[in-house]
Write a structure and sequence with these properties.
The chain is of the alpha+beta class. Helices cover 16% and strands 45% of the residues. Strands 6-9-8-7-10-12 form a six-stranded antiparallel β-barrel.
């Protein structure tokens, strides 16, 4: 993407490395993540099944467990029956049944007692059946409120839409469910008793299963580990697109398209030439006078008769000792660098004090005792 001498901005793409191996790893990590997620969801569902709920509304006519019992998956726990409404299925002639529809009123007559009850058609079968005598019929389902005396297996006839059924049918409870445990566990609490009326979704019993709870935690950890592995793969993929860490100029580029990368070898070198820094080692006797922000005058052997302005930006308190003397690294920043290049030998003078508007006299005019010789007219006076 870039060549030596090019100016780049921070974040510019320098290289794109073949990432086919990482892409395969990402696909494998995604599969592992989906497997871990499905396993975790299954464990959560099993954990939820420790709370046994009513599948239908009705009366608890039989309770098969008590608190403290060990229950196996699939074991019957209770029988719930809705006996307030009975369902009667009777055959009607095909032509008569074609005139009936759900919601129509019906009159039901109990066999034996000939008691008549009001009901309502709930379904008409679309399938024809053949009775004795080659009579074609279709079954019609009628719901009848139970006054209290109708029981399952009792027979009755019905009329609907002005037509009578072809023969008697048998009553059954509209709803009767055997509640079964979805998982194994110990009955920790029962919230119902025999004879209680329950509604669909009502909590009937709570079980405990320590092993299942541990499996849920383990699957949650496995799911999190899979998420981290996938994220790590994506992070690796980002490393295959190599971007410039700084803005600057490409000084050296060691690879071209098609080359094989070698461990430990630099891809390229980028210098930020907007300013230069140099490190000056200051003796321990003078370091106390150095402060950040002090001006510096810099000269270079390769740039004759030029002075460069610098400034102290950092004082490192980790000194370097050599031959019994310690010096401290001081970093100097130089913004105006025309003519200077990285690696050139340079000297620096740090200005620790400055005075403005002072009287200057030649050294030769000074005498012992802080006396200054001053020339006045043609004579010399003190």
């Amino acid at each position: 993407f870039r060549s030596e001498g090019d100016i780049v901005e921070k974040g510019d793409v320098l290289y794109v490395v073949d990432s086919s191996d990482v892409s395969t790893g990402i696909e494998q990590a995604q599969i592992s993540l989906e497997q871990s997620r499905r396993n975790y969801e299954q464990k959560l569902k099993a954990l939820e099944e420790l709370n046994v709920k009513a599948p239908e509304s009705g009366q608890v006519v039989e309770l098969k467990v008590k608190a403290g019992d060990q229950v196996s998956a699939g074991q019957a726990i209770a029988v719930i029956r809705d006996s307030a409404t009975m369902t009667l299925t009777v055959p009607f002639g095909t032509d008569d049944a074609a005139l009936l529809s759900a919601g129509q009123p019906a009159q039901v007559t109990l066999d034996g007692s000939f008691e008549t009850l009001e009901g309502r058609v709930t379904a008409v079968s679309a399938v024809e059946k053949r009775l004795e005598g080659n009579r074609l019929v279709r079954e019609v389902t009628i719901d009848v409120p139970n006054p209290g005396g109708i029981y399952e297996g009792q027979t009755a006839t019905a009329m609907a839409g002005g037509a009578a059924c072809a023969q008697s049918g048998t009553f059954r409870y509209r709803a009767e469910k055997t509640v079964q445990a979805g998982v194994s566990g110990e009955v920790a609490a029962l919230y119902i008793g025999e004879g209680d009326w329950v509604t669909a979704g009502q909590l009937l019993m709570r079980m405990e299963n320590e092993q299942l709870e541990l499996e849920v935690k383990s699957s949650a950890d496995a799911l999190r580990n899979s998420e981290l592995q996938l994220q790590n793969r994506y992070d690796q993929l980002e490393n295959y697109t190599i971007k410039s860490p700084i803005s600057g100029t490409i000084i050296e580029k060691n690879y071209k398209k098609g080359d094989t990368l070698e461990s430990g070898r630099n891809l390229c070198t980028i210098f930020d030439l907007s300013y230069l820094t140099m490190t000056l080692y200051v003796d321990e006797l003078d370091i106390s006078e150095i402060e950040e922000g002090q001006p510096v005058i810099v000269t270079a052997d390769a740039v004759a008769n030029r002075f460069f302005a610098g400034v102290v930006t950092k004082i490192n308190i980790r000194g370097v000792t050599s031959n019994g003397a310690t010096s401290y690294p001081v970093t100097i920043r130089i913004d105006e660098t025309e003519g200077l290049l990285p690696g050139m030998n340079a000297q620096a003078r740090i200005i620790t004090q400055q005075r403005q508007n002072v009287l200057a006299v030649p050294v030769s005019a000074l005498r012992r005792g802080n006396l200054v010789l001053a020339k006045t007219g043609g004579a010399v006076s003190e």
